Amino acid sequence: MNADLSIFYLVTQASFVVQLVMLILLLASVISWTYIFSKYKEFKQAVSVTDDFEEEFWSGKDLSQLYKKLTGGEFEPEGIEKIFIAGYKEFSRMHGKKGVEPVVQVESAQLAMRIELSRELDRLDERLPFLATVGSTSPYVGLFGTVWGIMNSFRMLGNVKQATMAHVAPGIAEALIATAIGLFAAIPAVIAYNRFATRLDRLTGRYELFIDEFTVFLQRQAHRE
């Protein structure tokens, strides 16, 4: 019996099914980490943009100037900026029409902001379901590889007159590697998903609060003129 129990040897000597399971889990792990880094930057940018915009919005700056700045083409609006642009643009369009009731003006602007909010949340939620899937299924995929490897080990024992630990250990060890890889893929995905889901909920709350506050401002503006 070959006494080499290094991970590399066990992986290369594993059965095709176990190797396929390991490959799937490694690919899932690589893709998960790619998504984790990209979503981390995306959420960090969204929070930063929201902080900067809210500071400028509540600084007392003229909103028409803020709108011109955001739509001037110097940079691409993001997140809460798009929500503001959608609401202000629609309110200005409806406000410029004759005979349109103030309530209709505000409701139209609020609807435009809600639509933009939905688009922004869809963008932020993108790829999170993949992390959730990897986190929930990887341990079971790894367990399947483990069970298959152990089955092969016991099946091979049928051809041996006297079974010893030297006969069983390599097969069980290579099988357990599949479970280890499954956990390696699942744990970061679960942690990242929970963290991003929490950030998404917080951003959603901030976006909705801004819409409500901006709606109140537009109501006063509509009835004033």
Describe the structure.
With 225 residues, the chain is mainly α. The protein has one domain. It is built from 7 helices and no strands. α1 (7-13) crosses α7 (165-224), α4 (80-95) packs antiparallel against α5 (102-125) and α6 (128-157) packs antiparallel against α7 (165-224). The N and C termini lie far apart (91 Å). The model has no long low-confidence stretch (mean pLDDT 87).
Largest sheet: none
Radius of gyration: 28 Å
Mean pLDDT: 87
Shape: rod-shaped
**Total domains, how many?**
1
Find the structural class using helix and strand composition: mainly alpha
Kindly state the number of beta strands. Answer: 0
Low-confidence stretches: none
Helix fraction, binned, reads over 70%
**Share in β-strands:** under 5%
Distance between the termini: 91 Å
What attributes does this structure have?
mainly alpha; rod-shaped; single chain; 225 residues
Which SSEs are present, and which pair or pack?
Elements: H1 7-13, H2 16-57, H3 63-70, H4 80-95, H5 102-125, H6 128-157, H7 165-224
Helix pairs in contact: 1-7, 2-6, 2-7, 4-5, 4-7, 5-7, 6-7
